[in-house]
Amino acid sequence: MDNKLFDLSGKIALVTGGAGLLGSEHAIALASHGAKVYLADINIEKCRYKAEQIKAYTIYSLKLDVTSKENWQKIVSEIVKQDGKIDILINNAGYTNSTKTSAFDKTFENFSLNDWNSIMNVNLTGTFLGCQTVGNQMISQGKGSIINIASLYGVVSPNHKMYPGTGIVQPVAYTVSKHGVVALTKYVATWLAEKGVRVNSLTPGGIFDGHDGLFLERFKNLNPIGRMSDKNELRGGIVYLASDASSHVVGHNLVIDGGWTAW
Ligand SMILES: NC(=O)c1ccc[n+]([C@@H]2O[C@H](COP(=O)([O-])OP(=O)(O)OC[C@H]3O[C@@H](n4cnc5c(N)ncnc54)[C@H](O)[C@@H]3O)[C@@H](O)[C@H]2O)c1
Hints:
263 residues; 7 strands; alpha/beta; single chain; Rossmann fold; 39% helix; 7 helices; binds nicotinamide-adenine-dinucleotide; 7-stranded parallel β-sheet
């Protein structure tokens, strides 16, 4: 067995959504296999704090609004100026339950155009812009790996019987945007494959983040594996898709969900 298969030494990586729950997990996965990681987020203070928490590795933090093409161009040129290249991009920033405003009404009947546009802008347009701007840099290098973070709700609809009484919402735009991320991945992957850039998506299931009560009970009952995912259970998939271990994997959606989408 080639023990260099998952090696990321000398690789330069950019992970968006670095201030949230999963961004720093992806950073740990990449850094522990040798990559130099830039963690970016619109919330730079929290992103810096998260980067500092990962004491074992030096993780750099940068400000980035993924909905702005100018922001993407700026961050690409900053990293290229510093390191000469970008080998790995993880499009992880997301408009999630933590981002929503107090005026948010999840019902389909009342779902506002404003919230639809906000979610689409971050989850889908932001991912498109990342694929395009960092993808162009990778084309010039002749190599790169892009991983778009989708969701179990990019594969199936939320089970609407899960949520009443739990305080958690799953709005229409989140599901549609994440299905869009999987579709975008296939398009960009097949466009860029011959140019040396591999593009894949990774689909997390429900990640445990202190959930309890009715929500946790229902989720455990509905998930074949009988529990939510631990936030560190995506690390193997991230390293696999980022490294040459997946050199022939193009346009794939790697589902890590405990079986949620299997039945
Ligand atoms: N946590 C889960 O259970 C779960 C399940 C499936 C998929 N996902 C996906 O995984 C990714 C990470 O999820 P998470 O749980 O860490 O979410 P999170 O809400 O904890 O983090 C998301 C981060 O994205 C950032 N962000 C929002 N808008 C931005 C913008 N315009 N520009 C830059 N950054 C922006 C936020 O500031 C936040 O730090 C998301 O794409 C999410 O949809 C999460």
